[in-house]
Design brief:
Oligomer: single chain
Number of helices: 3
Helix content: under 10%
Structural class: mainly beta
CATH architecture: Sandwich
Shape: globular
Distance between the termini: 40 Å
Largest sheet: 8 strands, antiparallel
């Protein structure tokens, strides 16, 4: 299987997907609007498409990992929810209560875009992106660092999928302050990076926080944080998101 190459770090075509979301749901019910971005079928072998998730008790959601490393991101549009209104998230913290219920001893795999293989391993981390910057089309733009700075991943905070599965159904909480020292963009620049002559990454980070459009979780391994993960056969594994919020 081939996957769309953007850079040595991260995939970049999430914005090609169009979502339809209600604007009448209370903020605490934001979890109903999640989709799992998945590589599947002839139309989604390079760019992940949105597939539905399964509701679980307590207003959470879940999905099953495939044996192939094709589950890439769990994301939701949040612009219509008061909790995530633009300008209200600066200085806050994002947190997600997550778990994996898996066959005992299950191991996981991730897609390595350098080799096209599926090495053992993989992890999950927090993600968000801002509204589209004028002039930034979907895709990777090495000539436009401000385009790459629309997308942010928690760094270094993440958890290995094997470690998460070992915690059982109670799982753990990923909690990351919306501080530039805790996030890196799609081109691998930390929010505190000052080496670029073309973009102030700290300013770009705060602009993304102030204009957040999507929140979520990202699955991958090595430097390919959104290229997808799977569970090694014959094991099975179900990822569960119990809560995602800002505080």
């Amino acid at each position: 299987m081939k996957k769309f190459t953007v850079t040595g770090m991260l995939i970049g075509m999430v914005l090609l997907v169009t979502f339809a979301f209600t604007t009448t749901v209370a903020a605490q019910r934001v979890l109903k609007d999640w989709v799992v971005m998945t590589y599947y079928g002839p139309d989604n072998w390079e760019v992940p498409g949105a597939l539905p998730v399964t509701p679980i008790r307590g207003n959470g959601v879940s999905f099953d990992f495939y044996s192939s490393p094709d589950r890439a991101m769990l994301i939701a549009e949040i612009e219509s929810y008061p909790q995530f209104q633009r300008g209200k998230l600066t200085g806050k913290t994002l947190l997600a209560d997550i778990a994996i219920e898996a066959t005992p001893g299950a191991t996981f795999n991730y897609y390595d875009n350098n080799t096209g293989g599926s090495p053992t391993g993989g992890f999950v981390r927090l993600y968000f992106n801002k509204v589209n910057t004028p002039g930034c089309e979907p895709g990777w733009h090495p000539e436009r660092p401000d385009c790459e700075a629309q997308y942010w991943w928690s760094n270094p905070v993440h958890i290995d999928l094997v470690d998460l599965a070992a915690l059982g159904s109670k799982g753990t909480t990923l909690e990351v302050p919306l501080d530039p020292a805790s996030w890196s963009d799609r081109d691998g620049h930390m929010g505190t990076d000052t080496t670029s002559n073309t973009v102030n990454h700290t300013d770009a980070f705060y602009a993304a926080v102030a204009n957040m459009k999507r929140i979520g979780l990202s699955f991958g391994g090595d430097g390919f944080w959104a290229f997808g993960c799977g569970v090694d056969e014959p094991s099975t594994a179900t990822f569960k998101l119990y809560k995602f919020m800002a505080k």
